């Protein structure tokens, strides 16, 4: 199986990226019917933004730890931290998509129009752009990591792609927390 994945890392990255983005944009644009996900009490749906902000904060910690560990040659710890980061992102995404689908799309910004136009939208735009760019980078780095032995991984694009993905992921998660704060705390 590793050899099959190794032989098709770019193609698998492309397929996973297209499927992931189709689901995300389908949910964000309200194309996925709410009947496809189970119902839950309103308090569950209302608590998802806070939970996702906490997950984002945890992911910032695990990504930073993964970066630290690889710089210090602790490959096992790096791998566990990056797998934890991926798991946190998957949990974040599942909760985010669930909420989007239950609500029929994103919620409107409740603050003043000037803050919306000149602060919230630019921050949200950069956050979304980085999240979209991160998806194929993270898939690519993960597919390389699972399909090559550790001894060969340094001779693949994994270290370079991983650095870029981790950097963008950190900024995206950080901006997500700022967006949450503007949307649910400040206003």
User: What value does the Rg take, in angstroms?
Assistant: 18 Å
What does the average pLDDT come to? 95
Query: CATH topology, anyone?
Result: Four Helix Bundle (Hemerythrin (Met), subunit A)
Distance between the termini: 50 Å
Number of domains: 1
Query: Treating each run of at least 4 consecutive H or I residues as one helix, how many helices?
Result: 7
Strand content: under 5%
Low-confidence stretches: none
Comma- or semicolon-separated keywords:
187 residues, mainly alpha, Four Helix Bundle (Hemerythrin (Met), subunit A), 7 helices, globular, transmembrane, DUF420, membrane, transmembrane helix
Give me a quick take on this structure.
The protein is mainly alpha-helical and 187 residues long.
Describe it.
There is one protein chain. The protein has 187 residues and is an all-alpha fold. It is 82% helix and 0% strand. The protein has one domain: Up-down Bundle (Four Helix Bundle (Hemerythrin (Met), subunit A)), CATH 1.20.120. It is globular. The mean pLDDT is 95. It comes from Halalkalicoccus paucihalophilus. Keywords: Membrane, Transmembrane, Transmembrane helix.
């Amino acid at each position: 199986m590793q050899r099959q994945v190794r032989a098709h890392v770019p193609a698998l990255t492309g397929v996973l990226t297209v499927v992931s983005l189709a689901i995300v944009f389908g949910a964000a644009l309200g194309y996925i019917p709410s009947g496809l996900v189970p119902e839950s009490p309103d308090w569950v749906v209302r608590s998802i933004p806070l939970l996702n902000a906490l997950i984002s904060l945890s992911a910032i910690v695990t990504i930073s730890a993964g970066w630290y560990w690889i710089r210090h040659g602790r490959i096992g710890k790096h791998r566990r931290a990056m797998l934890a980061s991926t798991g946190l992102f998957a949990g974040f995404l599942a909760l985010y998509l669930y909420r989007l689908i239950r609500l029929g799309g994103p919620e409107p910004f409740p603050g003043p129009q000037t803050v919306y136009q000149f602060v919230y939208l630019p921050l949200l735009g950069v956050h979304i752009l980085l999240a979209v760019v991160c998806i194929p980078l993270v898939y690519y780095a993960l597919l390389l990591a699972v399909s090559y032995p550790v001894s060969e991984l340094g001779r693949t694009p994994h270290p370079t792609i991983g650095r870029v993905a981790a950097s963008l992921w950190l900024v995206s998660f950080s901006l997500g927390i700022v967006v949450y704060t503007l949307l649910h705390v400040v206003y």
